[in-house]
Write a structure and sequence with these properties.
Helices cover about 40% and strands about 15% of the residues. It is of the alpha+beta class. The strands form five sheets. Strands 8, 9, 10, 12 and 14 form a five-stranded antiparallel beta sheet that branches. Strands 13-11-15-16 form a four-stranded antiparallel beta sheet, with no helix packed on it.
Length: about 500
């Protein structure tokens, strides 16, 4: 006999009962005007997600985060490993844009465009309602267990959809051509990508079949950040207590002694609660669990229309408006600061990307190995260098490397492969050995000029210092000085430093 768990005084999470067990949510669908708009947005976003990896522009993918070659192609522009500064600027601009968007429009992203909401509310839940019926029928299936024939069929369909989404997700990190070759061949030929696809499929299936709305309530940090991202003028989905309170059902209103005019418009029908996909009561004010899906707005507007009351008891609003202020103030210190920073960062990013996009190649020099130099027979010093060339064009290029002594000091170079061939948008390196006499190193710092050309107009030059042993100078003989007589008695002998106290 198992001991009964103690119950809490109130529910801690909308998805948790008072005894700590899972409370399964089966929200009622409210198909109002906002739901219809959200459905069209969701279908468009799902189509873009599946189609985007296959789109091309100017001979290359429109969006591809190729981790194997370390090249990120975003809307036709390719970021290379040497573009760390550009990636940093891009991420910073996106981050500040999220701050600005949230300050203005609240959590509209969560309700309208977040993949978790889009796929849950407009793909997985419609299939679930089609197979299991309305919320009351789904609750009956909960009592029968999770492995009934209907539920097993639902899980099978969910798993197939999860596999399709996992492959679509993988297409963002490898080219679709490579992905399709993997799909048509045996998994034993490419075990690592198959394992990644399988794990991604299982995670998607687990999310939409079991974890569901808890991803928004427990795992996603965005709702917890809203306390610092939102202000009193941000757009939220809110209930108007000035108009709705005191609330009461029709029976309560008839039995009450107060006249009808003392009652608010809310008839306490709980339509906003049973339709909420996260299980909250919007009438309790702004809450972390609210994802601004507007289902409560559609449900409440339908009830207000039935009882001949004006719609908008629950609506897009702001905390300032609910307290009697303006609905939405776009110009305020926070938004102005965010807009200024975003404009500055975007200007720098656009200038840097425009300048980089016109560069047909990028070259960098690195010292090879752990030894900066080596001493060779015949009193020579050798410096081993790596000249890395990044081809930013769509065709294969040949790059010639030259090592030149600007001051015409003795120098010879060995470049085993010269010129080097670099694939389109590829990266390759050449081994370069710069050799010079040790006597030249003792004179002054030895600097050479490294030149890289492609024979088609591209030329890159850089002065690079070569290393060697620490330079030594022969000390000159000090001038002879007459011996100074000692002021100490001869009996004291050689002077010793006095001990420190």
């Amino acid at each position: 006999m198992t001991a009964k768990l103690p119950e809490a005084n109130e529910r801690v999470l909308p998805t948790m009962n008072k005894d700590g067990s899972r409370r399964w949510l089966h929200p009622k669908l409210s198909q109002g005007n906002l739901f219809k708009h959200r459905r069209w947005v969701a279908y468009i976003l799902m189509t873009i997600f599946v189609v985007l990896p296959y789109l091309r522009w100017n001979g290359k993918h429109l969006f591809l985060l190729d981790l194997t070659t370390r090249r990120f192609t975003i809307f036709g522009f390719t970021f290379f490993p040497t573009d760390t500064f550009l990636l940093w600027l891009s991420l910073l601009t996106i981050g500040l844009s999220i701050f600005l968007f949230t300050a203005l429009f609240g959590r509209v992203w969560c309700g309208w465009a977040c993949p978790q909401t889009v796929y849950m509310e407009f793909l997985f839940r419609p299939i679930e309602r089609w197979l299991e019926g309305n919320p009351s029928q789904q609750q009956k299936l909960d009592k029968q267990g999770f492995f009934s024939s209907v539920r097993l069929l639902k899980y099978l369909i969910f798993f197939v959809i999860a596999a399709v989404l996992a492959n679509s997700f993988l297409a963002y990190f490898v080219s679709p051509e490579v992905l399709w070759s993997w799909v048509r061949s045996s998994p034993m030929k490419h075990p690592a990508p198959f394992l990644v696809m399988l794990v991604t499929t299982l995670l998607i299936f687990f999310d939409f079949a079991y974890f569901r709305e808890q991803t928004c309530l427990v795992a996603c940090p965005y709702g917890r950040f809203q306390s610092v991202l939102l202000d009193r003028n941000s757009l939220i989905v809110g209930y108007d207590p000035n108009r709705g309170e005191p609330r009461g059902r029709a029976a309560q209103r008839k039995q009450a002694e107060e006249p009808e005019k003392t009652w608010g418009d809310c008839i306490d029908c709980n339509a906003c609660v049973v339709t909420c996909p996260t299980g909250i009561d919007i009438r309790e004010g702004l809450q972390m669990e609210c994802i601004n899906c507007t289902q409560c707005i559609d449900a409440c507007d339908a009830i207000m229309t039935k009882i001949n009351k004006p719609t908008g008891l629950i609506r897009y609003t702001s905390q300032a408006e609910l307290e009697g202020g303006p609905r939405l103030r776009l110009k305020r210190p926070r938004t102005l600061i965010y807009s200024t920073l975003i404009f500055g960062l975007f200007s720098v990013l656009a200038f840097a990307m425009t300048r980089t996009s016109h560069t047909p190649a990028e070259v960098s020099i690195l010292r090879a190995g752990s030894d900066p130099y080596k001493l060779l027979p015949g009193d020579e010093i050798s410096n081993h260098l790596h000249v890395r060339v990044s081809n930013r064009t769509s065709t294969k290029q040949r790059y010639k490397i030259e090592i030149i002594s600007p001051n015409k000091r003795p120098l010879r170079s060995i470049i085993p492969i010269n010129p080097i061939e670099v694939d389109p948008y590829g990266l390759d390196k050449a081994n370069v050995f710069a050799i010079f006499p040790k006597s030249e190193h003792n004179k002054a710092i030895y600097k050479v000029k490294v030149r890289v050309t492609d024979g088609k107009g591209f030329s890159w030059e850089r002065i690079f210092p070569l290393l060697g042993p620490t330079r030594t100078k022969v000390p000159s003989a000090p001038a002879s000085r007459p011996a100074q007589p000692s002021s100490r008695p001869a009996s004291l002998g050689t002077s010793q430093p006095a001990p420190r106290r």
